[in-house]
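Notes, p. 3: input format for complexes.
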Amino acid sequence: MSLAKVQKAEEKYVLHTYDRHPILFTHGKGAYLYADDGSKYLDFLSGIGVMALGYSHPAVTKTIKEQAGKLVHVSNLFYTEFPSVLAQKLVKLSGLDRVFFSNSGTEAWEGALKIARAVASGKGLKKRTKFLAMENSFHGRTMGSVATTYTEKYRKPFAPVMPGVTFVKFNDVEDLKSKFGEDVCAICIETIQGEGGIHPVSPEFLKTARELTEASGALLMLDEIQCGLGRTGKMFAYQHYKVKPDVVTLAKPLAAGLPLGAIIVTADVAGAIHPGMHGTTFGGGPLACAVALEVLKVLEEEKILAHVKEVGGYFLDLLQQLDARHGCIVDVRGVGLMAGVELDSAELAKAVQKAMLAEKIIINRTHETVLRFLPPFIVTKKEVEVVVKALDQILSSCASSGDAAPAVVRSPRQRLPKASASGAK
Ligand SMILES: Cc1ncc(COP(=O)(O)O)c(C=O)c1O
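Output follows (425 residues plus pyridoxal-5'-phosphate):
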């Protein structure tokens, strides 16, 4: 089917939740996507942080084919062999104790919120129902997730969302301390905010959140759906800090594009959950779990975390060099292969993203002014150079044309917390 026909059919039959770019992709290989007109795109977004091993990775394709021929789904009423093996691996890698498998990021986060309430009510603390979430956070689109997501436009049309959420200024220790109390069942933090514009939590803020929750018995819940599983050069982003959470959520890259999420909890938290309290029809199915095991095997055998560290460090260095040359860059932030370039206007960021796409390079724009880069973990230094060179040229031409770059006052530079700034280098 042609792009025009697909567009017409979508317009008529598909709920309009996305304004898609007018490109019809048919297949992918490594870090590249191919469209129906034969054009080839270098993908520095990887399906919004999902295709960590790139497209059509041979080991992943082989596992999908083999497992699809054996068993795709049974139900969680019976045993299959992969979920427990995968859970054991995630336990070992995370330092936590037990795993629940979901189908998506928001389902994992939604489950984490339920677990926090269950832990408090299991202790008889009926009034301990409040969540402290962060300004500029994003946790997903279901009712609880959206309630803990800061951006008002995601919540407003669906009001009233889940009550009991107070937003704290991200990385503001005093604000966190002043809002914390005995009624808080969990502090909710993305270890590195993704949709919010690539902002790592500061070591001091995370340490304070850990101390407050430990002292009261509330939970520290880290959402690593975007930043976890190797993207920062460590398996979990919190491993850059000397802090262990009570709950961590994962999803995006876990099963190489098949829907799979995970909630990983401590033994103490697990004690509050009993059969029948929570569940899912599809979560932890044999196909997705077999593929996730293959993903973890490839990450380990091909030493991909070390590669992420090296190439990510190189990428951030080059982006920082651009920062020194282009007045329209407000800040460059990132860890490993999770990078953001903040520009001084939303119009410019929009124009730059569009121009990159015209150059057959896929990135996206988040938090209005931030160009976001989430390439597959397997990208090479050469591919990084291609992207940085294109960005350099586009920023130069935008500045000289003045079209997309209206005169703006340069915002004050934001500094990364020491432990995280290009921390994977
Ligand atoms: C940090 C974070 N949490 C939760 C989600 C929601 O995940 P999903 O879209 O799989 O529901 C996302 C998605 O972008 C995310 O980045």
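The chain has two domains: 3-57+304-401, 71-301.
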